[in-house]
Amino acid sequence: MSAKIQQFGRAAAIRALLLDLPAGASVEELLAAGTLACTLKQLNSSLAAMRDTGQVQASITKGNRVWMLTATMHRLMRNPDARVEPTRAAVARVMRSAPTGSHNSTTVQHKDRDRAEIADQLAAFKSAGGKVEILGNTPVRQELSRRQINDASAASRAATRH
Description:
By secondary structure, the protein is mainly alpha-helical. It has helices at residues 10-20, 27-32, 40-52, 71-78, 88-95, 108-127, 146-161, and strands spanning 56-61, 64-69. The protein has a two-stranded antiparallel sheet. It starts with 9 loop residues before the first helix and ends with a helix.
């Protein structure tokens, strides 16, 4: 969950509805409110994504799933200036890789996880008094223009013929 809540879009509209309904609401009740311009499938998808990021929670009563804001989201919406840092568990839930056909290290989730791990290591290194030297970008060799490349290849072809 980010420090600043987005104030536009479907998730913002869902949060606004659930803020006014502290006991929660079913998907049908949210759609019946009339402020959401989406299908049932889109609403379910949004609620699932919001649950994964710790914004809403669901409880099942009498065979009906009721959605409500989490206590943290309630507090954050009542006091928008409060900064809430996500827990490691929440970050791990969001960062877990979605099942795909590939386990390559080049998927976005792997890269994000690696970036977060490197950032933590770098912060620990700096807090322990370490200093990072930032090097400039020095080209290894002179870059040639297209014309210079063509002239050089023509010269090498002519040299191999004779």
